[in-house]
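Most newcomers find our protein records easier to grasp once they have seen one. Sequence and backbone structure share a record, each on its own labelled line. Nothing more is needed to start thinking about how sequence determines fold. As an example, a complete record with its sequence and its structure tokens follows.
=====
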Amino acid sequence: MRRLVGLLLLVVLVGGVLAVAGCGGGGEEAIVTPEGELRYDAEKNQIIVTGETEEVIWTADTGSEKALGVPVPDNADLVEGTAIVVAGSKGDEEWAGASFTSPDGVQKVIDWYKSEFKDLPGLSDTSTVLDGQAVGLFSFKADGVIKSITVNASEAGDKGETEINIASAAGIE
């Protein structure tokens, strides 16, 4: 459940940061539930989760592709505005992610990752074919950080032929 909440917060923060960056607005919005309150402070890029016994503040910052610690093909380009790091106020969890595009085909990028990770201990490669299209799914744990990579065809209008999404989560055990 904790992982799900963290992932949900990451998605909400990314969406919120992108929305705020696009409109230049600020302020704070709140959602109240029977279990507590969820507030979003656009000026500070924070989500404040208040429960019955505690409050946790999640802060989003612009990340760096290098901070993810996962290789990307040389011809892959970072999608502007997608590198983000989200950390909790207790200092025990951190989520990071970024998206890239590559002009190479999906299978070529999947094969590149298979070659790059061939000697990586603990690698989980669950790559598959969905609706006739190859999809790369890789995950591993290094130095207490869980990292995952997805490789799939870009949607129409995207810069590259292939989309690479990288996410990492620390302190979620």
